[in-house]
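Quick check before the chapter quiz. The format below is the same one you will see on the exam, so make sure you can read both the input and the output lines.
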Amino acid sequence: MSASREKQNRQAAAGQTDPKTARAAQQRKEEKRTTLLYGVIAAAVLIAVIVSFVWRSDFIPKTTTAATIDGVKYTAAEVDYYYQTAYRNFATNSQYSYFLSYLGLNTGASLKEQELSPDTATMLGIEIPGADEALAEGEEAPTMTWHDYFLDEALENMGIIQAALKAAEAEGFQYPASVQVQYDDNMDALRSVAAASGISVSQYLKSNFGAGVTEKVYGEQLMRVLRYSAYADAYRNSQTYSDGELEEAYNADRNSYDHVSYEVVSFSGAAESTTDEDGNTVEPTDMEADLALEAAQEAAQAVLDGFKAGGNLEDLAGENNGTYSKNENGSYSAGSVMSEWLYDSARKSGDAGVLADDTIQYVLVFHDRFRDENPTIDIRHILVPLGTGSIAEGEEGYEDQQAQLKADAHAKAEELLSQWQSGEASEDSFAALAMKESTDSSKYDGGLYTAVYQGQMVTEFNDWCFDASRQPGDTGVVDTQYGSHVMYFSGANKERWQTQVASALRSEAYAAWEEDLAKDVSIQRSESGLKLIG
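Here is the expected output.
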């Protein structure tokens, strides 16, 4: 059973995530919301097939009811669409894909036979019914399988989507044209991927979503998710905040938004293992471990003393075999020894000290703490990608062919710009052209990127956007490694720190909206249909 929404954290703070902590659970919950909000769940067909996903039934009757949500019946095939999508998104999520084995998830075995460990349940923010009570009584706690987890995720997502679509209908919400465009693109991609795999669409869907997920079932659920995303996106974007509200929210959680500049030298105090004459690894003795730690501590203290005496920290690091680095734009990471020292409210420029994190010794020098007050901008663009060459890099003619591909992309971009200029030449008409012609995912928003900050985009793109002479309505063509971009400058946005705070507040508002929307949703399970899932 997934964690109750009342206990879900609103915003994952910046910093590296430790999979063993509750902080990772915060991030996982926020990622789940992002998946729903932006329709990643709907784009599963665009992700490469994962070999040996899960065991799938050879036959799932299309008419067998698996769940009833607020009186609406869903077949096993429809539930399987969301089940397989929840699993696929998790297994390919960059945050988890690199340590699935650590989580105890074997993608080559039945999910129904794999249990979540207590650590994994904590990380994912899962409360297993009866677990706390059993542990309090000294009894063996009930367990949960990965199959149960993804099934719960699927049903919960379905409940949220249905509640949102019902609300959208009640208020007469008008879905933007981008919904149909994105639907058509996804369906075209489905057919292309299937053809490239040398199989039919039916066979592709069967291998990835279950035997009952036909093209009709897939298309219907895809459209539901896209409509949900559009409605949720509209709600999120409707939330605006005054400068005073942003300042108040910033002051309530400065660590999440402030940056720090500092220098650091690190020393490893871990003793190295050795190898005996038979090739076996010999772990260091306690004495060797103590000596290694003592050596690191002495080296760190020597660097600190030298720095306080007026020495250059980088030079001192080299003289003492330490690792030096400088960070001009560091972010806060809860639980980090370095972060807690750097973000101490009493910290002053020039402060220096030695910190220990297990066997690692750090010499830290603090320079400044600040919020990013640089302006952000809103920009629209149409991406014309480079064509695919037929000559491999290093072969004769490769450079000439690449030059021609770049010239072709640039010419196409200039043609699109001229086409726009010969028409209404407004921002709305540019957005319409972007939705039709761009190959970038921003096409569904009319090519729009909001609150773009200095250094976010590739160099040529960034330099055009942040040219000091740039004015709203400016257009042009910019060439980058990705192709040619037809540019439209929408205008300046708020300062970087303000956009970050506003984004966090919108996430909180969206979370509360979602909770209220789905709090009374009734989900009834039909075991005869659910047993066909997975």
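If your answer matched, good. The first strand starts at residue 65 and ends at 69.
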